[in-house]
Each structure stands twice: as C-alpha cells, then as structure tokens.
C-alpha cells in the first residue's frame, strides 16, 4: 500500500535528499483512499535515500490520507487528512508505493502551520537556488529551483477551498524567483513587502538576473555583464547583499 509523504517530511526531502524527486516524475494520483497511515504499514526500506529519518517521536513522518481513512495513533507517523479532489501535479513518485508531495503542494500544506510572512519566505526558497537546513543542518547553495511563483499560483487556483488556501494565496502574491540565499530573501522581504506585513513597500526588483553593462559600467568593472542580487531596472539601482564579519 502506498505512502504519501507530505508537509514537513516532504520539505525535508527536498532539502536533504541527494537526488530530490524531479518534476518529470509527476504521478497522476486521482485518489489517496489507499494511503498508509499506520506505523506498522510504513515500509522503511522505501524511505531509504529520501533524506528522511526513520520515523520517531522526535522526527515523525508526515503522511497524507483521505478524510475517511482510519488513522493510527502513533506519534512517529502523523497523518494529515485531505478532503476533496487532488490538483494536477500534487505528487511526485520516488519509488514503488512511495510518493512525495510536489513543491507546490508542500507550499499549500505548510500554510496550515506558517504565518503569511514565513510562508512567503518558504516560497522564496522553493523558487530560489538555496536550501535551508539541508545536509548537516547547513544551508546549501547553487541548487536548481524547485518551482516558480507562476506554478505555485496555478496550483493554488486548482486547489479549491482547501485548508490553508487563503493564507497560501495571499503569500504567493509576494514570492519572487531566483533568490540565491536566505539573506537575499530577508532583504527582499524587508524592502518589498507591504507595510501591513512589516516591509517598506518598495517596488519589487529582479533577483539574480543578468544585465548587460553600458560603456561606463564596463569601464569600471572590466566586464560586459553583471548579475545583481537585487536590481531595480527603472531606477538602474543594484543592491548587493554582503554579510560582514567582525
């Protein structure tokens, strides 16, 4: 019987697995009525290589089940009920009988437990090129983006009135692609979120998008192009994010 890994456990997979499930392995799952939710039914061998620890009270396995499913009481396997149809692209197949929630589905699932600003920050990571709390608990860089803001928004459009959808739809409006570090994300959020969310309401810049330099720029940098951390094209303003150590 299949296990559908979701929420925090799926996020851990994308952060920590050596080879995270790729988009071309999208599974056409119409129903999760057959989902496993009992600790004794979880095949631990199928979790090997997924970046997941063996289910325990300290690090439980989060799985998705249908609303009508019989749910176990084990504190090491925590079932989350899903009611209604599944949007296209909800899962990626990693091996026989093991499915991982797609990055877009993870974004929606985490809206159950995160406030809107924290969810925007997560969205920036999913659409960026870094992974927080990855192998060894350190941030890793130069990773392929897991999704895009457009894909997140499209998935949410098809998710109906799922629990957390209101927060997710509010958050996705402010998610920008191509952030290369947690610090860039924090600077972006501080400057560009609306004041009601704690930001300064600056216009949204482009992140880490290459630009061609003019004659004066080439003279000063000895380069023909540049990749600014944050770039406001209309103002021709480049902001570089550097952490100084003392």
The span between the termini is: 55 Å
Q: Low-confidence parts, pLDDT < 50 over ≥5 residues?
A: none
In total, the number of strands is: 13
In helices, the fraction of residues equals: 25-40%
The major β-sheet equals:
4 strands, mixed
Rounded mean pLDDT is 87
User: Order of strands across the biggest sheet?
Assistant: 1-6-5-2
SS strand fraction: 15-25%
Shape type: elongated
Order of helices and strands: EHEEEEEHHEEHHHEEHEEE
Structural class: alpha+beta
Q: Tell me the number of helical segments per DSSP (H or I, 4 or more residues long).
A: 7
Radius of gyration: 20 Å
Structural summary, described in words:
The longest helix is centred in the middle third of the chain and has 11 residues, at 116-126. The protein is built from 7 helices and 13 strands. The strands form 5 sheets. Strands 1-6-5-2 form a 4-stranded mixed beta sheet. It is elongated and about 65 Å long. Helix 1 (7-16) packs across helix 2 (103-110) and helix 4 (149-157) packs antiparallel against helix 5 (165-172). The protein has 246 residues and is an alpha+beta fold. The chain has helices spanning 7-16, 103-110, 116-126, 149-157, 165-172, 182-192, 215-221; strands spanning 3-5, 26-27, 61-66, 77-82, 91-95, 98-101, 130-131, 140-141, 206-207, 211-212, 225-226, 230-232, 237-239. It starts with a strand and ends in a 7-residue tail after the last strand. Helices cover 26% and strands 17% of the residues.
């Amino acid at each position: 019987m299949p296990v559908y890994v979701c929420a925090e456990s799926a996020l851990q997979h994308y952060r920590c697995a050596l080879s995270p499930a790729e988009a071309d392995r999208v599974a056409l799952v119409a129903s999760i009525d057959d989902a496993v939710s009992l600790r004794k039914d979880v095949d631990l061998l199928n979790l090997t290589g997924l970046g997941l620890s063996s289910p325990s009270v300290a690090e439980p396995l989060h799985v998705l089940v249908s609303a009508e499913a019989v749910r176990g009481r084990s504190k090491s396997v925590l079932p989350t009920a899903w009611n209604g149809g599944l949007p296209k692209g909800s899962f990626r197949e990693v091996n026989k009988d093991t499915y991982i929630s797609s990055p877009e589905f993870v974004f929606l699932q985490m809206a159950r437990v995160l406030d809107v600003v924290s969810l925007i920050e997560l969205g920036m990571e999913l659409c960026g090129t870094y992974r927080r709390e990855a192998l060894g608990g350190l941030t890793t860089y130069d990773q392929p983006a897991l999704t895009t803001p457009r894909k997140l928004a499209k998935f949410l459009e098809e998710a109906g009135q799922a629990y957390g959808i209101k927060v997710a739809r509010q958050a996705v409006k402010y998610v920008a692609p191509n952030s290369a570090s947690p610090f860039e994300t924090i600077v972006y959020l501080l400057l560009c979120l609306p004041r009601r969310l704690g930001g300064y309401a600056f216009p949204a810049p482009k992140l880490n998008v290459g630009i061609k330099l003019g004659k004066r720029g080439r003279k000063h940098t000895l380069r023909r192009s540049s990749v600014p951390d944050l770039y406001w094209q209309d103002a021709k303003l480049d902001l570089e994010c550097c952490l100084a150590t003392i």
